[in-house]
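Quiz preparation item.
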């Protein structure tokens, strides 16, 4: 089942390639190769490599034209989004950014890409350490590896949610969805959340010592919550009416399945005084049941179209 909406930037409706394994199956096939403890079984946002008493956090994300950003997008925005999405993964580990490596496909408006890259690197205080450039496309694609230093050990994972924990998000969902739609339709509306997402790095650094599980919301709240539930061997019971929205109320169920929000999803013991300016409690962790998600008491799994998956 497809998500009910095109996910922000991931708006192509191409049918799956016959015989293609799809994202979940492909990742499953890689797990045998990712036997090093740093890989965390490929069940997390990032790798965590212990070196000389320090925990180094490594993550890599890609953006593809026509899938993660609209053709004709301002390349300065593409550069910003490329860095911010990777810094978001570091935030979910409570990691301080140390540097990034860029994989860049040459093309029109490379000068604008460099301008946007300078802006976002300055914003997060992170240096460019190197990378590679190639020719190709269209469509163009870009990759970035972000390197960070964990500020707290054990480093938070998706897999630590415990029955009885409260479930939280760090901010409203849906602004990227409505921003994408405004761009796509040439309509009025603020598209900043879609074009230039903000990684919740300060919140991640503050929360790392206190949470049991944490990840960023990139592919939709429900799908990412299902990933957390499966990694934790638990069920996440979410109350839709408690989820904060940056979209019209009648778009609630769409916003739950959209990605690109880059808020943090985390669990913590109930009653814990949280060290962040704002967090919304949206549910409770339950013992593992028949499905990873309970939405207002209804059992849901990935087959119900919880969010965006490649393939």
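Solution:
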């Amino acid at each position: 089942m497809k998500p009910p909406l095109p996910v922000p930037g991931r708006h192509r409706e191409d049918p799956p390639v016959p015989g293609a394994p799809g994202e979940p199956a492909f990742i499953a096939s890689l797990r045998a190769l990712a036997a090093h403890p740093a890989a965390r079984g490929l069940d997390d946002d990032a790798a965590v490599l212990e070196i000389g008493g320090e925990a180094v956090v490594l993550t890599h994300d890609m953006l593809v034209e026509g899938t993660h950003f609209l053709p004709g997008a301002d390349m300065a925005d593409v550069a910003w989004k490329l860095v911010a999405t990777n810094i978001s993964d570091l935030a979910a580990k409570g990691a301080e950014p140390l540097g990034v490596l860029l994989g860049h496909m040459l093309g029109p408006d490379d000068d604008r890409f460099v301008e946007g890259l300078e802006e976002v690197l300055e914003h997060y205080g992170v240096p460019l350490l190197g990378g590679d450039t190639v020719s190709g496309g269209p469509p163009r694609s870009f990759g970035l590896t972000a390197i960070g230093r964990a500020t707290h050990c054990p480093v938070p994972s998706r897999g630590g949610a415990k029955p009885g924990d409260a479930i939280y998000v760090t901010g409203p969902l849906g602004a990227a969805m409505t921003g994408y739609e405004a761009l796509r339709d040439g309509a009025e509306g603020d598209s900043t959340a879609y074009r230039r997402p903000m990684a919740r790095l300060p919140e991640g650094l503050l929360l790392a010592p206190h949470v049991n599980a944490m990840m960023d919301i990139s592919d939709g709240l429900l799908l990412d919550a299902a990933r957390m539930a499966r990694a934790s061997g638990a069920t996440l019971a979410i109350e839709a009416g408690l989820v904060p929205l940056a979209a019209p109320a009648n778009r609630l169920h769409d916003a739950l399945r959209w990605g690109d929000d880059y808020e943090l999803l985390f669990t913590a013991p109930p009653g814990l005084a949280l060290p962040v300016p704002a967090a919304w409690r949206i549910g409770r962790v339950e013992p593992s049941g028949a499905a990873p998600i309970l939405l207002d008491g209804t059992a849901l799994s990935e087959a119900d179209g919880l969010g965006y998956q490649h393939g």
